[in-house]
Amino acid sequence: MSEIHIRRLSRSYGNYQALKSCDLVIPDGALLALLGPSGCGKSTTLQLLAGFDTPSSGEIWADGELLSDARNVIPPEKRGISLVFQNYAVWPHKTVAENVAFGLKLRKLGRAEIEARLTKALDTVRLGALRDRYPFELSGGQQQRVALARALAVEPKILLLDEPLSNLDAHLREEMRFEIRRVHDELGITTVYVTHDQGEALVTADKVAVMRAGIVQQFGSPEEIFEKPANTFVASFIGSNNEIRGVKDAPGTIRVGATALQAEDRSDAAAGQPAVLCIRPSRLRLCAATEPHNRLDGVVKRSAYLGEYRDVLIELAGGAMVRAFVAPHQRPAIGEAVSVHLPPVACQILDAPE
Amino acid sequence: MTLSFPTMPARSASAASMRPRLLRWIVLALVLVTLLLLVVQPLGWILFNSFHDDDTGRWTLGNYRQIFASAALIQPILNSLLLASAVAVLSTLLGVPLAWLVARTDLPGRGFIRALTLAAFVTPSFIGALGWILLAAPNSGWLNVGWRALTGAQGPLMNIYTMSSTIFVCAIYTVPYTFTMVSSALDEMAVELEDAATTLGSGVLRTMITVTVPLVMPAVLVSFILSFIQGMTLFGVPAFLLTPSGTLVVTTKLAEFYQLFPPALFLSAAYCLPLVLVTGGLFLARNKILGRRQFVTVGGKGRGNRLIRLKNWRLPALAFALIVPVTAVLLPYVAIVLVSLSKAWGLGPVPSNLTFHWYRWAITENAETQRAIVNSLLYAGIAASACVILGVIVAYVVERRVLRGAGLLAALVTIPIVIPGIVLSVGFCSAYARPPLNFYGTGTIVIAAFVATFLPIAYSQAGSILKGISPDLERAARSVGASEGRAFTAITVPLMRGGLVAGWLLVFIPIMRELSVAIFLVSTKTNVMTTLIYNYKDGGNYEAVCAASTLLLAATLMIVVLARFVTEGAARRRRNAASLGEGQ
Asked: Is the ipTM of this structure higher than 0.95?
C-alpha cells in the first residue's frame, strides 16, 4: 500500500515525445485508470512505473522513496511493484501453482508460508481447483486470473495492470471488470490500470487520468470525467457526445445560429469568440416547438432502434448534426421537423478544439 | 494541480542496482574478449600479414602484385569461379525440382527420398569424393571395371579426376541445401495462397508459375548463392579429385602454400582475400534478397493430402528424384562399406575377400584412429557447447536490447559465416602459432577454430528460439522480484531448452564432419577423424580410410537420428509455449 507521486515525468524516444511532463498523485489504496487512445503515453507511464524504462526527466516517488529519475532507476525486482501483462505472460512451462509461487520462492519464505500465501492468492482469484493445470489447459480468462494471482501473491505495494482485459471476449471482459474491482476492494492495494476502454475505466477506477499525446488531459473521479469533461477531447473520448459549434455571447451563454443557449461555462473564450456547446445524446429531449428555453429546431435524418433507446440523428437549421437518445416508444419519422430541448444543467461551454 | 512532495532523503537507487549490473558487465566483457580472440584477432592477422613480405617481414603490396601478375596464381582463382558457378547452376537444376516433387506431388517414395537427401546433407563431401574415387577412378574404379568387362572397351566409362566430375560431386552434396531451403519455403507457404488462384479459375501449371514460383524465388536465389559459396570454399573434394591431375583451385592452392618449406604464410594471407571478398559480397547479396522477409514465414494451414497428381510422369519423375539419393548416398556408401570390409579392394567384393580386420584395427589396435575418434567427439562436444553458450548470450543481448552496442556483438558472431574454413584456418595459424599465444599443436587451437567457424549457426539458432519467447515472460518474473539473471535462468533458459538441444546438435554434426578448418591446425596428437582420413588417403591405404570413414558416417548418422528425435519433441513443446508466450 503506497501513495505514488509522479512529478514532471517525461519520456522521449529520439524526436518522439511519448510522455510530456506528467504530474499525478495516486492516493494510498486508490485504483487509478490511465485512459486514452493508443499512443497517448499510458503504457509508457506504466513501463516507467514498473521500472522497465528510464525517464528522460522527472521523478517517480512511492512512500517517500525515489523510484525513478533520469539518472537512477531502481530495478523492477526491487520496487515492490507487480505488473499484470496484456498478454498474461503466464509461464507455459510451469503449472498454475508454480506460476503463482515463483515470486514467493524467490523471497525464500518457509514452505508453510509459501503454501498459505499461494492458497490465499489462488482463492482470491477463485482458481484453487485448477492449481495443477498447465497454462495451455486454461482458457484466456483463467490465464488472466493466474497472472493476477501471481502478481498478488508477492503482496506488492503497488499493482499495475496493462490492458488486462483487452484479449478477452466481450462477455468475459465485463465479468472481469467487476472481478478486478472486487479484488481491489478486498486487498486495497494501490493500483494503476491502463486501458483504452472507457467503460472499463468508469467501472473499475476511483480516479481516472485521461491522456492524449503524452499529456494528461484531465484527472478526476469517473463522475467528474463524465459529467464535467475538461475539454472536447475528454468529452468525446468518454461516452457519446454532441459538439455544437457556436459563438460565445457572454459568460454562460452561447449562440448557435440565431439561438442563444444557457449552459455551464467552462471555457476560456472571450465574448464574441468561437466556442463549443457539449451535451450527451442521452440528455437531449424531444420537445414541443413552443419550448421557450434552450431549444433547437431541426429535421430527423436517421432513426435507429437499439432496444433500450432510439438513436436519432437530427440536422439543425444551421446544418450541424446532433444525436439524441430518446425513449424507444418515441418514433420520430425521417424527414419530420422536430425540436430538442437542451437542459442547461447538461450543457457545457468548452473551448473550441484547435 | 498543486503537489506537495516529500523532502525526506531517498534511499539511493544506485546502491540497490549495483551488484546485478556488475555481474552483467563481467559476463559481457568476457563474451566480448572471447569474440575478439576468436574472430577479430585471426582475421586481423590475415589482413596484416597480407601486406608483409614472407622473406623480409617488411610492409609491402608485393603479395597482391604477385597474385595478379602470376598466371599460376590466377588460374586457381579462375578454376574456383568456374567450379562455383557450375556447382550453383547444377545444384539449382537438381535441387529445386526435387524439392517441388517431394513437397507438392504424389511422387512415390517421398519419405525415402527426403531421408536420403538429408543423409547426403550430413555426409562430409570429401568422403563422398572418396567413394567416387572407388567407383570411378579411371583404371580401378568399379564402375569402370564393370564397364570394361561388359563391353570389352579399352577406355574408362568415366574419369573422376576431371573438372566436370568434380563439379558433379560438389553439386550432389550441395543439393541438400537447395532442397531444404526450397522445400521448407514450399511447406510453409499458406495453402490458401494457391487455393485463391485456383478458385479464380487458374489451372495447376498457371498457379505454379504465377503464385508458387514467385513466392519461393527468394529461397531459390538464396540457395543458389549458398551453393556458389560452397563451390568456392570446398576443400576436400577438389583436393581429392582435382589435385591428382594438377588442377588447383583457391583452397587447394592455399594448402599448397602451407606445404612449401618454409610455408608462404604472408602470400597465402593475401591469397585468402579474393575468396573472402567473393563470399562476403555474396552474403550481402543474400541478405539483400531476403531483406525483411528473413524472419517472416508465410504461415498457413496444413496442406493435408492435396497433392498434385503426376499421373504418367510418376516414373520419369522418380528416376529424376533418385539421382541425388543414388549418387550422393547409395553408391558411395556401398563402395566405402564394401572396401572397408575387404582385405584388398582390388580383389573386388567376393566372399574370400571379406574381413572385419580394418574395423578391429581402427577401434582396438591403431592408437591414431582411437585418438582421433576420442578427439572428434571431445572437440566437437566442447566446441558445440561453447558455441551455444556464446550464441545464446549474444542473441539474448541483441534480442532483448540489453545494451546499446549489441549490434557490434551480433556482427562479430556473424562474420565467420563469410569466412571460408580454410581461410579461418590460415588466420588461426597466424594468430595462435606464435608467442605469446602459442597453441599450435594443442587441442585448444582446434576447438577454438571450430567455435569460431560455427558461431554464426549457433547464434542464428539461439536468436530464432528467443524470438519465439515473449519478453513479457521475463518481465513478469522481474516484476515479482526476480533479478535479470534469475529471470534468464528460471524462465528464458527452460523455455529455450528443447530448441537449444537441437541447436547444439546442429553445431555438433557439422563440426564432426568439418575438414578444412582443422586441416592446418592439427598435429599427430590432435588429429580428428576427418583430418586423419584425409592424411590416410594420401597414404593410399583405402581399406583403412574406408573403415575410418564408415565409423565417422555411422557416428554422425546416429547423432542425426537422435537430433531429429529431439527436435521434433522440442518443436511440439515450442508450439505449446508459443501459443501462450506470443501476444495474442
From this structure: no
